[in-house]
């Protein structure tokens, strides 16, 4: 800032469903079934792998002007391409040299002209920049990894911006170039992995024009991740700022209190610094943004294994649809035309739907 499908997957779904049910009982759950399911798939281990092993965040690394800057850029581009996103480099000039924003796009299927952007900056101030801002880039990549497997009504762009530390140069160039796009919301994640307060708290910044976006993001962070958000006004020191200046709704998601971060803009802003990077906290922040994106852009996750009635839960209400599928596949398809029965009903993964799926299905319900 300027200033990884088997039983383990099913178990995660079961735990998520229990948490959602309990929250609903006490009147806390305000999100959607799609959102709760999608956010249950965010993986801390995957997030940590990207942050530690793909973004050059160790002692001695320099993503500002050192060789690690271009190496990190290449890894981000590679991961976007691996995820099947439409990937390109947006070139811009700064101080006589060419730099690149890395863009991965998932085209919308229903309202493709509407655009949502999730961004973070991959440059640093001549240091490893683990928190500032590899933490945000790792979140962008984890959200992209999941959403790229699904469909979205609106178009989603995942962007790793460059030269933020020199005054949001990369995002300014991009926002200016795309000023005529129908950008419905832009969220910049900048420094989301240092926690200096006991609870999961965060700050969201943006101008008054972004009030609805800020409120929706704050609610999603609370609903899907248990992060308590304090909403603030204008702050132009990160990559949301140029989008707001072009008239778009945009905001910054930020850890609670940067001033107390003793490693901010130093050589110790590294994953090697003991007791520094809070991976569970960063993963929660990631999940909250994903939950917002699912709601706003109309993302439809694939149904979980065993979800025969298509409500993103696996429970007793799936028994009758499962019996129907075993008895008459055509009748099942007629009753649930939006579901691929082999996606949800081939429980043992042998490519067939038959009696051999019964025991695994019962095991799923037991979980």
Characteristic terms for this protein:
alpha/beta, 367 residues, single chain, 2 domains, eight-stranded mixed beta sheet, disordered N terminus, Aminopeptidase
Which structural class fits the helix and strand makeup?
A: alpha/beta
**Number of helical segments with 4 or more residues:** 13
Q: Please, what is the average pLDDT?
A: 93
Beta fraction: 15-25%
As laid out across the biggest beta sheet, the strand order is 1-2-5-3-6-9-7-8
End-to-end CA span: 43 Å
The CATH architecture designation of the largest domain is 3-Layer(aba) Sandwich
Give the CA-based shape: globular
Largest sheet: 8 strands, mixed
Count of discrete domains: 2
Q: Which CATH first-tier class of the largest domain would you pick?
A: Alpha Beta
Could you list the spans in which at least 5 consecutive residues all have pLDDT below 50? 3-27
Q: What is the tally of beta strands?
A: 10
CATH topology of the largest domain: Aminopeptidase
- Computed CA radius of gyration, to the nearest angstrom: 21 Å
CATH 4th-level superfamily of the largest domain: Zn peptidases
Q: Which bin fits the share of residues in helices?
A: 40-55%
Order of helices and strands: HHHHEEEHEEHEEHEHEHEHHHH
